[in-house]
Sequence to fold (342 residues):
Amino acid sequence: MDSTTPPRTDIDWASLGFSYTPVRSHIRYTWKNGAWSEGVLSGDHTITMSIAATCLHYGQAAFEGLKAFRCKDGRVCVFRPWENHKRMNRTVHQLLAPEIPEEMFLDAVRRVVRDNIDYIPPYGSGGSLYIRPLHVGTGPRIGVQPADQYDFLILVTPVGAYYKDGLHGVPSMIVEDFDRAAPLGMGQFKVAGNYGASLMPAKLAKLKGFPIPLFLDPREHKYIDEFGTSNFLAISKDGRYVTSDSASILPSVTNMSLMQMARDLGITVEKRKIEVGELADFAEVDACGTAVVITPISSITYGEKVFEYGKECGPVSKKLYDRLTGIQHGEVADEHGWLFEV
Ligand code: PLP
Ligand code: COI
Fold:
């Protein structure tokens, strides 16, 4: 199969949300005795491992998220996989797990996307193929220590919008009773445990009517950190792009790309600590990330206070959204070389 293979006809592309659809194959590499195996494509939707695997007991699980798109000219391209590779290596380094050579990571992405190319939503549908690299300790240990075996897997699955309202604003609330990460902890790494920590605060916020929880810095609870699954960005009333600088947030590839695009458009970019009180100074607020793309935030509730940003996507955010998705679909020139053709 190659990029001329058309999308399947047995999937209703228009109704895809951000959910798991089984596809043809995943790819798996095993690290043992200091070396990675060749990658094997498998049609099995389950994996087996030791009951004492360290990913099950001791949090030795790193993951990534990126997307493949069908472009206007028929190519299939993945957005900035080099950055996900670097971030995954930073995460596994922190977990004392073996790093992955860049060529192996890119080859794995290429092979698994190609093998499932008919699962990539059609150009113009708004959907994409979500790519989820996973790096887990699979060797058995009962003491807390690194494993002697790891598996690197990539699953792919077609997805639509993370929040069903698309570019309509979603209300957020600041979480006051929980932190998603510790001040000197793992917030800047993409480890599975961070998402376990976010489940309860996310559920409590959702029950109050807020689908996106916003976390504060865990040391002082004074500055904006990030949303549960995405970075925080704001456009100030005088048109600056403002985003959080914090050691406990994930360095987002989407945010990094948006900052570059904002600079390209002549917008001043400020990556710095943002005090909660500054929420009153912003004209537009968005969540940004691979899954959420740019999701406008309609309001942020903080105790008794409510900061309002409007129900629709603001003009600067919309411009950035159009440019980002335009590059991803080959409609806008890829001047920074962000697309990886498979
Ligand atoms: N912050 C968190 C906690 C995330 O899980 C994600 C998603 O990966 C992001 C930010 C956005 O990062 P990226 O743009 O690389 O997807
Ligand atoms: C992503 O945006 O790729 C993520 O990993 C966020 C989330 C779905 C956990």
Remarks:
- The mean pLDDT is 96.
